[in-house]
Amino acid sequence: MAQTFIMTKAMPLGDMVFIIVAFLLLMVILKKVAYGPLTKVLDQRADKINKDLDDASKKSADANTLVEQRQKELSESKTQASQMIATAKKSAKEQSDALIQAANTQVAGMRQSAEDDAVQMKEEAMTTAKKDVADLSVNIASKLIQKELSADDQRALIDAYLAELGQQ
């Protein structure tokens, strides 16, 4: 049979004081032995967690700064690459223009040289023609008159004749 403990009588005052003193003493001992070190460990743990959270926030901010810096450097690199390409295109265009200019100058020089050669050849042909005409005229005139004129007289006569033709 199970007995049930039911308190029917009031507890004497001495027992009650003893229980309260024992309880208070137990609370002081627990505070010194268990709660103090446990609170200290929990405070240290909370400090460590807060420190870890602060470190994580700092590392996150550093990572964001690094990402922004890398994006800025990438943007600058793209800008520099675009400038280099533009410079290369401009340089190629300038070289192309310079080569075309040099070729045009060379062609103009060749054309001028050809024109000069043509003028010189024309003058030589005219001089040769005058001489040949003068010689031919001397031969024809000497055959016609049956007398020989001097070559200088005949050339003077032909030059005068050609001058008249040139004026007409």
From TrEMBL:
Pfam families with a match to the protein in the record: ATP-synt_B
Transport found in the keyword field: yes
InterPro entries: ATP_synth_b/b'su_bac/chlpt (IPR002146), ATP_synth_F0_bsu_bac (IPR005864), ATP_synthase_B_chain (IPR050059)
Keyword Transcription attached: no
Localization, UniProt: Cell membrane; Endomembrane system
Region (Disordered): 60-87
Transmembrane segments: 12-30
Keyword line: ATP synthesis, Cell membrane, CF(0), Hydrogen ion transport, Ion transport, Membrane, Transmembrane, Transmembrane helix, Transport
HAMAP family referenced in this protein's UniProt entry, alphabetically: ATP_synth_b_bprime
PANTHER family: ATP SYNTHASE SUBUNIT B (PTHR33445:SF1), ATP SYNTHASE SUBUNIT B', CHLOROPLASTIC (PTHR33445)
Similarity field: Belongs to the ATPase B chain family.
Protein name: ATP synthase subunit b
Upper classification of the organism: Bacteria, Bacillati, Bacillota, Bacilli, Lactobacillales
